[in-house]
Amino acid sequence: MSKILAANFKTNHTRASTQEYVEKLDTSMGELGYLDDLYLFPPATALNNFNVKNSIHIGAQNAYPTIKGSFTGEIGVEQLEEFNVKTLLIGHSERRHILGETQEFIAKKYIWFIEKGFKIFYCIGEPLEVREAGDKAVRQYLVEQLEGIDTSYENLILAYEPVWAIGTGKTATAELIERTHSMIKEMVDKPLLYGGSVKPQNLAEILAVPGCDGALIGTASWDAESMISMLEIAKNID
């Protein structure tokens, strides 16, 4: 079964370096014979119409639920359409916990963009204190992050990213990932990625976990050579 890989650049890369990155990956995907879809989420200032030969899809890390308007610092559909972007990350923990997006606003954003036909990568995940409280607490926390979210939407991909494992170097064990993914799959029958300190050294183990349909990769995806090595790992698992 094919796996879905996605790279979240966060606040890294420029327009020029993203162009170079995409060119390297496109060439390497052809050389590897990598046929699965790859999703890249560069900063808004690096969005572009990239000329690629392989299945590289460009998404936005964030957008405001509007076509255009008076929303200083935000981008809307008018800006995304310039670059044919129809894929969007919603609910990432950094937007929840650092930038203060509430579940109510996240759900409003989600509903608005599914009505526009966007493919949505929807992120859920618990902080350390919830994980330490046990599976029942984790389940309740994840249920709350699904409030107002139409999980029957056909263009939905879920990403489970435990907050305590994002950018910390800590990765959930294969057993914990399998247990949590099984819990989520009981609630939502959609492709489910794992995210949280994914890197070349642990990707094979993560992708081999039952119920894991791919990975949403942060830090380790920012270097093109690192990402290419992960494409090779994923292809060999297929």
From TrEMBL:
One of its GO terms (biological process) is glyceraldehyde-3-phosphate biosynthetic process. Keywords: Cytoplasm, Gluconeogenesis, Glycolysis, Isomerase. Substrate binds at residues 8-10, 167, 197. Its main location: cytoplasm. Its EC number is 5.3.1.1. One of its GO terms (cellular component) is cytosol. InterPro entries: Aldolase_TIM, TIM_sf, TrioseP_Isoase_bac/euk, Triosephosphate_isomerase, Triosephosphate_isomerase_AS. It comes from the Bacteria. Gene3D superfamilies: Aldolase class I. It is found in: Cytoplasm. Coiled coil: none annotated. It catalyses: D-glyceraldehyde 3-phosphate = dihydroxyacetone phosphate. The active site is at 92 (electrophile), 161 (proton acceptor). GO terms for molecular function: triose-phosphate isomerase activity. Pathway: Carbohydrate degradation; glycolysis; D-glyceraldehyde 3-phosphate from glycerone phosphate: step 1/1; Carbohydrate biosynthesis; gluconeogenesis. PROSITE patterns: TIM_1, TIM_2. Pfam families: TIM (PF00121). NCBIfam families: PRK00042.3-2 (NF000728). Involved in the gluconeogenesis. Catalyzes stereospecifically the conversion of dihydroxyacetone phosphate (DHAP) to D-glyceraldehyde-3-phosphate (G3P). Homodimer. Belongs to the triosephosphate isomerase family. This is Triosephosphate isomerase. It comes from Hydrogenimonas thermophila.
